[in-house]
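Data card: per-record layout.
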Amino acid sequence: MPPTDDAPPSEPDAVSDLPPDRQPTEDPARDSPADGAPDAPSPADRVAVPPTLSIVIPTLNAATDLGRALDSLSGGGIDFEVIVADGGSTDGTQRIARAFDAKVVVAPRGRGSQLAAGAAAAAGPWLLFLHADSALQRGWQIILRGFTGNRDNHFRAGYFQLILDDPAPQARRVEDLANWRARHLGLPYGDQGLVISRPFYDFLEGYKPLPLMEDVDLVRRIGNKRLTTLPSAVTTSAVRYRKGGWWLRPLRNLLCLSLYYAGLPPRWIARLYK
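The structure for this 274-residue chain is written out next.
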């Protein structure tokens, strides 16, 4: 059909209308990679490098303390991820964790179950278990980089010295007792933190789903000779001692420990611990 006067004129071909001497030519050097140059990796080929350390923090309505604990982890020196294993908090704990770019894992309530769930979600070859009301001292990254980099520690575990965030003289006595117990009896509690390699943790079959004494259960399997006191400290909230009594609370802890060694089920001991 011939074009009518109303039909718009056809647009010129921008390339074909150029003079012959100005026609574009293919440039092999531009359109193909140089000899020996690797092709750019596709998104599917890019594999994320796992962190050296996975820090696992169990929480249950820990909004008051969690921010301080997470803030103490800032700084360089070692590549790490943070996993918050939450037991169903209703006070904004999960929101605070995500604000610090922590990975949140929801687990059945109970510190043993939560620690195990956090470890299962961890990507690093080393694990650091830390309580939500505990803050690490400056320079902890250098300490752990040295510990994790020593091949002799691959089947050992380390813990921090304990400091309570209270200036009272009674707090110093509680600290001395806890640090003595850890050093001489091989019984660091969970509020002193625990760093352990993934192979050693898996060999020991990790944390058991216990409502109480999950920390004692694991360090007993580690053994005193394979425990190391790290040259750094962790500052832990003293609120339990202020509320429960500077002497009464340690005595209650000792009673719970004695009952555990006597074979009483942890679920029964947990009623006394509260």
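Known properties of this structure: The two ends are 93 Å apart (CA to CA). Strands lie at 53-59, 80-86, 103-106, 126-129, 134-136, 157-164, 194-197, 227-236.

See the next section for split statistics.
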